Each structure stands twice: as C-alpha cells, then as structure tokens.
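Observation: inputs received (chain + zinc ion).
Thought: call the complex predictor directly.
Action: predict_structure
Action Input:
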Amino acid sequence: MSYEALALTDWPVVVAEVLNRQRIWDVHTHLYPPTFGTPVANRTGRTDPAGLMLWGIDELVTYHYLVAEVFRAAPAPQVSYAEFFRWPKSRQADHIWRYLFVENTPISEACRGVLTTLQRLGLDPNEKTLDGYRAFFARQDPDEYIDRVMDLAGVSSITMTNAVFDDAERGRWLADKDVGRDPRFKAVLRIDPLLRNFPAAAGRLAEWGYAVQTAATPPTLAEVRRFLGEWLDRQQAIYVAASLPPEFRYPATGQALEQAGQTVLEQAVLPVCAARKMPLALMIGARLRTEPALREAGDTSGLADVQTVANLCRAFPANKFLVTMLARENQHELCVVARKFRNLMPFGCWWFLNSPSLIDEITRMRLEMLGTSFIPQHSDARILDQLLYKWPHSRRLIADALADMYVRLAQTGRRITRAEVERDAALLLAGNFQAFLER
Ligand code: FIX
Ligand code: ZN
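Observation:
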C-alpha cells in the first residue's frame, strides 16, 4: 500500500503507528535479570540487599537524575548530601516525591518519566504519597514483571552493562556461570579502568591471577588479551564498552596514563575485538564525580574530540566502533565523521542528551546526514520500569522527525510505501544494530 493519497498532516500519525509496533533491541542499559538478585520487596519473598536487578517505585524515584534535581528544589534548611545518603531508600524516595512531584511541578524529563511509567502501569500519577505504589510493586513477581514491562515497552532484547572491575558484578559471574543466561538479556564487557587508569587496572588483574605488570609490556599485553578473552567467553558478551573522559585523545597527547591506555587499546582491546568481529563501544565525554558528594548523581559532561574517533576508525579499519558522545556540541561533527567511516555507528542520545528538545535536534540532524544508517536511541535504563517512559518518549520524537522526512520526500513526487516505512522503522530500532554486530 502506498501513501500518495496521504495528507501531509497524516504522516506523523501513520509513522507513529508503525514505530510503535516495531520491537526494539535496546543497545545500552544497566538492567539485569532476576538471576543477579533484587533488593526490591516482591511477591516471591526472595530479596537480596546486594541484588543488581532494580525496579519499583523507590528505585524509580531515587534514580540519580532525580537525586541531583531534589537538592535544587527542596527548601532550606537543606539536608546535607551525606545525611540524605544515610537515609533508607524509602525515606530518600519520600523526600524526592514530596519536593519534586507534590510541592513542585514535575516538569523535568526525569520527573515526567516517572509519571509516564505509572500511567503505563495503569496507576494514578496524582498520589500524594508512595504507599499505594509500593503495595502495587510488592505484589509483582520480578521474572513475570520483566516480561510485562518488555511487552508494554515493545522491547525485544535488553543489552546489559557488565562491569568486570565492579566487585559486586564480577562476583556474581564467578559464583554462577549461568547468571547471565536469561534469553531476554545480552551481556556487554565493560572495561573503563583498563583504558582510563591501566596501572590501577593491572593491580586488579594481578589480584585475579593474571601475570601483568603496571607497565604495558608485551607479556603484560598478552595477559590482558587473555583476560579479555576469558571474560568475553564467560559473559558471551556481544560487544566491549568503555566510558571515556572528554580529554580522551587518539593518538594520546597526555602523559604516561594516557600513553598506557593507548597501548592497551591498540595492542589488546582492539585486536581481541577485531578477531571476534565484535564492536568496541566508546562512550566519550563523561566527566566523573564533578561533585563527588553527589556520588553517581555528581557526574557532568565535557566537550570531547571527534577527530579522535575519526583517527581510530581510519587506523583500525578491521574494527567496528559504536560511538556515543555526551556533549551536544560534538553531535554534528560526529555525523560528518560517520559519513566518512562505515565502521563507525553513532548511537543514542546519551544521558544529558536524553531530553526531548535534544533528541529531536540530534535525530533530525542524523536523518538528514546519515539517512537511516544509525542507531537513534538507547534507554540507558538503570531501573527496569524506566523502559516504560524512555522508549515511549523517544519513539514519539523519532516518529515526528521521520514523518517530516517522508513529507519532504513526498513533495519530490517520490511515492513512499508502508513497507518502506516499516523497513526504516525496523532498521532504526533493531536492524542496524543487529547488522553491525554480524557484519
Ligand atoms: O557510563 C555509562 O554507562 C552512563 O550511561 C552511566 O554511568 C550514567 O550514570 C547513566 O546512567 C546515564 O544515563
Ligand atoms: Zn549507561
């Protein structure tokens, strides 16, 4: 069926309907299946205070985006950051709900997201306290709830972030070889310290039995390749990932630390990824703990160097690079560089860019410069239920941008069929990622 007769005003509705039916492969999240344990009270009665599977109203409302926002909204006398973090999670959540959702208008994207989530679950977002929501979530079985959330969000596969240098995470993989075997989830080997501070990372590898030194010598690099291979096999990971600071440069321009990181990148990480035809995801621009007292909520962003991405793509043509950058100002140049390197796949509107005005701007820029050859979004969800807002909010924005492209195309006289719109939706929300993995 073709759309010649379609009125220009109908395009957004038609495209939204097609995009809403397209199931999504979420390429980057911090989500986990129940095998990693959950600290959240639930119908099975099984909880693990150190569990990594986060869901439910107290986790939703204490998302680190909202922790940062509540300190700007709560009236004096302000509780100190340290005091706030000493409170139990339920008290933190009550505090945030009162000052961000009741006594102030919840118009920020992180606030609106919680309300969209409640609405999608059939709950009234106008409650003055969290008690009713807590009772709802306590009645859920985590395993069944994952299926319900994925179905409501239209997500077919969840890609995890499995940080091997995080003791809580590593211990679970070593304790249970099948911990990651949930077919709804795919693993990713996350290696930040290896590239950000190799001497410190080498100290951990030595503790784990790898014959490494703090200098990136050839024998040490061979052991780093062994370490990577063993963990990629253990996790059955689909790509390797690292978050890097705005100052990250290739070739390295800094002192010993950057030079060591470059050597490890060139002689361990990239060769292992190339041999497995596995992408390396570079998430560039995160300036960690700018306000350390805010912990995970204290990170900020910084302008990074896109020519560094071009230098890597050019120097390592056998490698595949998934790249997302945190500064709005880096986005246009990343599109330009992506036009020159087919081994570069830009993905997502990351973190502080995951906001309607910026998702709209970046998606339109990418459609105009890259056609449908990019991955428009990832959820970056840390709490399972966030899939119920991050994806509906982004689907709508992607649909509006795509509809405008079709309107412009139709004005050239080119006929556009429903099958073409469905093909484009499939590419953007799942197919491009699958093809990049398999290429
Ligand atoms: O490095 C990352 O994977 C970031 O996405 C996170 O560290 C960050 O806290 C986040 O969740 C942003 O949305
Ligand atoms: Zn993330």
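Thought: report the result.
Final Answer: The first strand starts at residue 24 and ends at 26. The two ends are 31 Å apart (CA to CA).
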